[in-house]
Amino acid sequence: MFRRFISRAQLFRDQLRRKFGKLLFDRASRGGDLGQVKRLLLVRWDAKIGDSIVSSFFFRELRRARPDIRIDVITAPHMASLYREHFGVDHVICCKKRPSYGELKTLALETGSVDLVIHLGKQLKMKDIYFLRCLDADNVMGLDDELTLINHKLGKATAGRHFSYKFAYALNLLGVNALNCQYIIPEDSGRHQLIQKVWPEESVVAFNPYGSGSSRRLNFESVSRLVELIVKYKPAWKVCLMSTPDTKVEVEKWCYELGADRVFTVQVSETIQDAIEIVRLSALVISVDTAIVHIASGLNKPLLGIYNPDKENFSEWHPNSDKAFVLFSSKYENKLANINNIDFYSASEVFDDIFKS
């Protein structure tokens, strides 16, 4: 009850700030021919790896068709190498998580003149609106159709479509067609070899039980029952429980309780690149709704994605793969979403489908 109250209070605060932001900073952009764009800036300061993977093809396809466009990205410092080394953008501008208004003004001045800004936040906050106003670009492309300064509106045009489609639509507006929407998945031979040294000879199911927030985290009981299903269908296979730095101790404990002869974790795994290499080495991936789903889709791996019954979220972030299966948690009236509300009879039917395919 208290968590729900806090959530509503924060929502009210954000809505009030947004109204002030629209009143103070929402002015029409000048507009211009997108065919004449020479410098593009993509705002990605959300620092989410899954979102970045889903949009990765955007840079490759834009570079292929419009090599005349300089591509800049604003993102968090720890994401800079992903965009620079793997996605091939021309310039990465780093921004801390919660910049002040003064810092945003300085950032806009340092960024300089831009022909087109793309910001695909669904409902921009006051600081987003302020920053876009400071940039003063001729063209602004975004999903927040309510804003006057967004003169290329993608919200209604791409509503209910996968987030990758929204980037494909942006490419179409820039005159880029015949798209290859395959995700770019970073490779690191050194980390791959390190993981491979501790990898078993048997086929492996990579199992990621952790998503963002408690509503997307599987508990031990759910993990245990899903492991039992894996063992039932593939008794000779092993299960690799994936972890994050803050869940490593818990996962090691779970592996011991589930039986080290069939369940293990990669103790040398420390980064998202390590997680990518674990997925790359696996025969099947099981994951809650998080970046691992999109990484597995990009690597064309057989996949079981576990989602809460949120239609809007699923329409935009479902596994973008014909090798994917989906298991939804059950929805209970007047209760918060919880990924652990799994109907295991339905889960067994999904496993039937996976291992028959």
TrEMBL record:
It holds the Pfam family Glyco_transf_9. The keyword Transcription regulation does not apply. GO terms for biological process: lipopolysaccharide core region biosynthetic process. InterPro entries: Glyco_trans_9, LPS_LOS_Heptosyltrfase. Keywords: Glycosyltransferase, Transferase. One of its GO terms (cellular component) is cytosol. It comes from the Bacteria. GO terms for molecular function: ADP-heptose-lipopolysaccharide heptosyltransferase activity. Transmembrane segments: none annotated. The keyword Glycosyltransferase applies. This is Uncharacterized protein. It comes from Zobellella taiwanensis.
